[in-house]
């Protein structure tokens, strides 16, 4: 049975939350966002951009030169039109503005007093072309330099963010969705890039153009300038109304898009289940509901976003018409020149453009600042606790002791309670118990993925907090239930356990893990490329590579966390053979649901609700006829 639209939207918008849906607002603007502390964020960004002070000076100069060239180029039309008018109407009388008179005198000085109108026009046009050419060169220089500054700054931000991610504790990654973490590198950094590369340039260039245009307008005719300014609130009001409506629909569009993408993602991942239970028709119907909703929201968003330009353009035409009409009257009554009217009409038409551009870019700027604030928030997080600072790097043999250790991931919920145990060098210690009993937490504490607050863990008599963190982890190899393989060859993935190992050592490790035979059956053997986290391999094969990686590490302490729980019995035997080889002469901690894998352990710890309720070897625990005996005989089962 299909679900209703509102329920679908709510569920699948949540599914898509945190994914990289780079939503765009009206006219290409990015998704909205507001920083909490604008000043602090800008200061932090300047610490990156400020390294290029000399380039920024050239950018500012080029920006100013480009704007001035555009304004002067437009104004050079005035003396040309005036000269042509005088040629056609010799008795015409003009009152030229100071800018017109200056431009006219420059041209006359170049060509001489007695030159004809043709020479005058050709010379003026050559000057006009040169001015615009200077503007083009300035714009190119500004764009190229700003691209260098922005890309270099963003590269440094990404590097700093990624470096910080590597130093953050596992607690951070356990408590934040992957999509949210990825959005710092994609959406947020991308928004910073857009702001540095485009938005800031557009804002400052718009301000320069606005000031320059106003200066030329007021010096030409203050009456027409006043008329133009009176239309600005009309432009702003219309832009605000349309933008507000458009923004509302763009937000709805993004929510609907998120729901559609979330639904697609879930159904693609769950195709086998859908087909097994014959839900194809229901899926099609549900998707049609979501897709229809998206179509309606997109129509409204695109419509209101699309009419902004035409409405603003037609409104500016009204301003243009009024300005020209009044200018015509001024030509008759006060000797206002036709050239000045022509140029002023052009300025009046473009006067509102910088205002609109600045207002539209500001939303992008604030979204980028909000993104930068989130990025810097991650950078400011406290890294992994380095411990006591002693940074011991003495040789580790593998004697592990837990002394009255209590721990909780959250202060209000204790996961381990007063755990005490020891493992002599080379011993195999197993942990069994139901889900949530605290088995994996013990190994997380051993590796210092989390630090104990109550009790102490020592290795060879030294508190693990006194060891150099990297040195400690290099002496503990782990084989986890969820294997992770990286893009690269089989050889590269095994070598991940010890990067300096040569090919022969890698192959020996694979043989020790019982992985060599299946590797040699692959198309390119050890040079076979691993795809999609090992999607071209079976679960058992991926686990064998994981074991080979641990074997290559030569770490004296080994942790096996549910290493055989997701494979069949035959594959389990292969994995056990591999594990038996790599466990030899290593202190090993084994977590297992299948009790057959822990029978030969030196000691077995039975955990329940964070406490060790039974301990002993296989025979001793069977003789106690407690929880372990009931689990082994099948009287009760692990959940």
Strand content: 5-15%
State the end-to-end CA separation: 32 Å
Gross morphology is elongated
For the largest sheet, list the strands in their spatial order.
6-9-10-3-11-12
Helix tally equals 22
Number of strands: 12
Structural class category: alpha/beta
Largest sheet: 6 strands, mixed
Helix share, percent? 55-70%
Average residue-wise pLDDT:
83
What Rg do the Cα atoms give? 36 Å
Oligomer: single chain
Low-confidence stretches: 14-32
Structure explained in plain terms:
The protein is of the alpha/beta class and 639 residues long. It has helices spanning 5-15, 38-49, 53-75, 77-88, 98-111, 117-167, 170-175, 178-220, 222-269, 271-276, 280-306, 308-334, 338-379, 439-446, 469-474, 490-495, 503-512, 516-521, 539-553, 569-583, 618-624, 627-633, and strands spanning 400-407, 416-423, 428-433, 454-459, 462-463, 476-480, 488-489, 529-530, 557-561, 587-591, 603-608, 611-616. The strands form 3 sheets. It has a 6-stranded mixed β-sheet with strand order 6-9-10-3-11-12, sandwiched between helices. It has a 4-stranded antiparallel β-sheet with strand order 2-1-4-5, with helices on one face. Helix 9 runs antiparallel to helix 11 (280-306) and helix 17 crosses helix 19 (539-553). The longest helix is centred in the first third of the chain and has 51 residues, at 117-167. The relative contact order is 0.09.
């Amino acid at each position: 049975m299909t679900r209703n639209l509102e329920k679908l939207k709510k569920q699948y918008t949540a599914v898509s939350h945190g994914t990289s849906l780079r939503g765009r607002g009206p006219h290409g603007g990015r998704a909205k966002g507001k920083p909490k502390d604008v000043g602090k964020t800008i200061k932090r960004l300047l610490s990156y951009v400020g390294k290029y002070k000399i380039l920024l000076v050239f950018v500012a100069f080029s920006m100013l030169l480009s704007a001035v060239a555009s304004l002067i180029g437009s104004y050079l039309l005035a003396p040309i039109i005036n000269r042509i008018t005088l040629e056609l109407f010799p008795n015409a009388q003009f009152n030229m503005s100071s800018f017109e008179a200056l431009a006219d005198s420059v041209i006359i000085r170049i060509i001489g007093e007695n030159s004809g109108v043709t020479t005058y026009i050709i010379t003026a046009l050559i000057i006009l072309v040169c001015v615009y050419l200077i503007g083009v060169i300035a714009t190119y220089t500004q764009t190229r330099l700003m691209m260098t500054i922005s890309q270099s700054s963003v590269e440094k931000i990404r590097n700093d963010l990624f470096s910080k991610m590597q130093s953050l504790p596992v607690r951070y990654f356990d408590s934040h969705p992957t999509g949210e973490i990825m959005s710092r590198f994609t959406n947020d950094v991308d928004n910073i890039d857009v702001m540095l590369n485009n938005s800031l340039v557009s804002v400052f260039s718009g301000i320069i153009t606005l000031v320059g245009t106003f200066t030329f307008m007021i010096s030409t005719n203050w009456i027409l300038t006043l008329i133009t300014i009176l239309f600005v609130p009309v432009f702003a009001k219309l832009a605000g109304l349309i933008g507000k409506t458009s923004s509302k629909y763009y937000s709805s569009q993004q929510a609907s898009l998120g729901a559609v993408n979330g639904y697609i993602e879930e159904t693609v991942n769950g195709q086998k289940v859908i087909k097994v239970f014959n839900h194809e028709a229901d899926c099609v119907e549900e998707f049609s509901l979501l897709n229809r909703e998206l179509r309606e929201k997109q129509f409204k968003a695109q419509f209101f976003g699309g009419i902004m330009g035409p409405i603003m353009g037609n409104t500016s035409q009204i301003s243009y018409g009024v300005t020209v009409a009044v200018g015509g009257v001024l030509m008759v009554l006060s000797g206002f020149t036709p050239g000045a009217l022509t140029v002023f009409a052009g300025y009046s038409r473009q006067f509102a453009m910088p205002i609109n551009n600045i207002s539209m870019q500001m939303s992008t700027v604030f979204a980028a600042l909000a993104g930068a604030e989130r990025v810097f928030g991650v950078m400011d997080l406290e890294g992994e606790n380095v411990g006591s600072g002693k940074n011991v790097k003495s040789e580790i043999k593998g004697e592990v002791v837990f002394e009255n250790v209590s721990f909780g991931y959250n202060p209000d919920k204790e996961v381990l309670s007063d755990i005490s145990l020891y493992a002599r060098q080379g011993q195999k210690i197993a942990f069994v118990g139901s889900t949530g009993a605290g088995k994996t937490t013990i190994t997380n504490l051993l590796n210092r993925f989390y630090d104990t607050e109550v009790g102490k863990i020592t290795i060879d008599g030294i508190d693990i907090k006194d060891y150099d963190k990297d040195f400690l982890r290099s002496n503990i190899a782990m084989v986890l239930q969820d294997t992770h393989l990286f893009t690269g060859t089989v050889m590269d993935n095994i070598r991940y356990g010890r990067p300096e190992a040569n090919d022969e050592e890698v192959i020996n490790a694979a043989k020790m893990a019982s992985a060599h035979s299946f590797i040699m059956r692959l198309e390119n053997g050890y040079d076979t490329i691993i795809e999609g986290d090992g999607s071209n391999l079976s679960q058992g094969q991926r686990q064998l590579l994981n074991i080979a990686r641990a074997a290559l590490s030569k770490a004296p302490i080994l942790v096996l966390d549910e290493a055989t729980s997701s494979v069949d019995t035959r594959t389990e035997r292969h994995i056990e053979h591999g594990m038996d080889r790599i466990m030899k002469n290593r202190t090993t901690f084994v977590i297992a649901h299948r009790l057959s894998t822990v029978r030969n352990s030196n000691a077995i710890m039975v955990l329940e609700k964070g406490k060790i309720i039974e301990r002993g070897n296989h025979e001793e625990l069977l003789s106690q006829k407690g929880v372990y005996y009931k689990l082994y005989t099948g009287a009760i089962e692990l959940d």
